[in-house]
Amino acid sequence: MTRRTWMQAAGAAMLARTAFAKKAALKIGVTDWNLMQTGKIEAVGLAKSLGFDGVQVSLGRTPVNGKLPLDDLALQAQYLATSQKEDIPIDGTCLDILHVNYLKNDKLGQRWVADGIRVTKALKTRVILLPFFGNGALKTKQEMDFVGDALRELGPEAEKAGVILGLENTISAEDNIRIIERAGSKAVLVYYDVGNSTQGGFDVIKEIRWLGPKRICQFHLKDNPNYLGEGKIDFPMIIHTIKTMDYQGYANLETDCPSKSVEADMKRNLAYVRRVMQEQ
After folding, report:
1. Using one digit for the tens of pLDDT, what is the confidence trace for 260-275?
2. CATH numbers and ranges of domains, the chain
3. Distance of CA 2 to CAs 5, 10, 225, Å?
4. 209-258: per-residue pLDDT in tens?
5. Which pTM was predicted?
């Protein structure tokens, strides 16, 4: 091999590694509930067949024998086996029972978070989404303080388990950071939803940049009821911002299905995101 040929080969290899690194930095997953498979193991295989990098699974909002539906060793083993078989990771969980027992004012919500930490670890994933919507939305300083105090108690347990507690809500980035600072745990971060923040009137790009990769655990991408790129949210700028701040995690699609075909609409939205990622 001549020196020129060797240098060309080395350059090509470096470019390939760079391309792979860029591709691997931001991974695109999907929620099981937007696949219309909430709490169903079939969501794992469907996510893989549609081309996603991961799947976010629901822990269930109706207790079974006083426990979270996924707080079952046999069911956890099935999820892990399916994940391995389909070669797609479970990229996170959602503690959807907090839509019933609100963490902002219900001590039972704290118990579910503790159980959710254990289940999330058992599923060999790191991020558990804590939702605050509807009647469970955070509206007052007192409610935010209650959540911060609850998470101060739960933070050490999450840290020990290697699990991140992600706050998804309708409040500002600044208010989320106040909760995080009150909790005083590195295990409490923001689960940033670009659709929720846009609807709330917040400057999404400014908030993402201000929070940065160290304070955001995962993203939800949506512009419901529109297809991505056909509503009012500037996804090219969002993807550019996420990539340039060196975020190394998942962005999960939480998109509606306007045509009522999950497969067709998820493929369409995923193709759009992949195209935008390549253009950035």
Report:
1. 999 999 999 999 999 9
2. 25-279 (3.20.20.150)
3. 5, 12, 58
4. 999 999 999 999 999 999 999 999 999 999 999 999 989 999 999 999 99
5. 0.91
